[in-house]
Design a protein that fits this description.
identical protein binding; 7 helices; NagB/RpiA_transferase-like; Rossmann fold; eight-stranded mixed sheet; alpha/beta; three-stranded antiparallel sheet
Length: 270
């Protein structure tokens, strides 16, 4: 179930400052996306058995779809119990109410929430239709703090190195915030809007890097050749806001789970 390897970052530096090398990142290379998704769902089920009150951070997009399908299948077989778990999703499109079929909340309802025994009051989401985005972000951060932070965070990675909707740029924000989505990110989400990028909202609300970084454990998933360059930058590149995922090199408890295509840039670097 996956070839587990350790990769030590190289070329470490940020804004001209040399940083002490970190422990090697644990990269698991799977033969296929489906194998990785099944292993991830089984891992979540085991984590829930060990701690039924687990606080989960959950992503959206194409990457976690097979993980959610596998979680539903495990639940239907009585092997995954979310009755005492709490979830916090990472982001939501600005301007879309929760019941909009294109909202990320509706995505989660379709692919996971309505199929498992997760209590509605334990589901937490940013409200893209809130009148004051800044207040909504502050509310969400406070609720996550009250819950004790994330025990296990699932992440995807954008082809430009983004995590959640923390876009690449000259700086990153620690707290939840409003973000203008890049065209690259919007193109990546177009399949959820009938392949019409013009329908993808221009902005979103997202958990900041601080909340992501404070998760006690992180599993980052990446599948397909389009993610290969971003995975290589995450694992081997310098720490830089121009690849937000690269900050995870400093976390200390991150696993990177990839298929062979997404991990192709790592060959021969272990």
């Amino acid at each position: 179930m996956g070839d587990s390897r350790l990769y030590a970052p190289r070329g470490i530096g940020y804004a001209g400052v040399h940083l002490t090398p970190r422990p090697a990142l644990n990269v698991r290379v799977f033969a296929s996306e489906l194998e990785a998704a099944a292993a991830c769902a089984a891992h979540i089920a085991e984590a829930l058995r060990e701690k039924p009150s687990l606080v989960l951070g959950l992503p959206t997009g194409r990457t976690p779809l097979n993980v959610y399908r596998q979680m539903v299948a495990l639940h239907q077989r009585g092997e995954l119990d979310l009755s005492r778990a709490t979830t916090f999703n990472l982001d939501e499109f600005l301007g879309l109410p929760p019941d909009d079929p294109c909202s990320l909340r509706a995505y989660m309802d379709r692919h996971l929430f309505r199929h498992v025994n997760l209590a509605p009051e334990r589901v937490h989401f940013l409200d893209g239709s809130a009148e004051r985005a800044e207040w909504e972000c502050a509310r969400y951060d406070a609720r996550l703090t009250q819950a004790g932070g994330l025990d296990l965070l699932l992440l995807g990675i954008g082809s430009n190195g983004l995590v959640a909707f923390n876009e690449a740029g000259d700086s990153l924000q620690a707290a939840s915030h409003r973000v203008r989505l890049s065209r690259e990110t919007r193109l990546g989400m177009a399949s959820f809007f009938g392949d019409d990028v013009s329908k993808v909202p221009l902005a979103a609300l997202t958990l900041g890097m601080g909340s992501l970084f404070q998760a006690r454990r992180v599993i980052l998933l990446a599948f397909g050749v389009r993610k290969a360059a971003a995975v290589t930058a995450l694992v081997r590149g310098p720490i830089t806001s121009h690849c937000p995922a690269s900050l995870l090199q400093l976390h200390g408890n991150v696993e990177v789970w990839v298929d062979t295509e997404a991990g192709r840039g790592l060959e021969g670097t272990g």
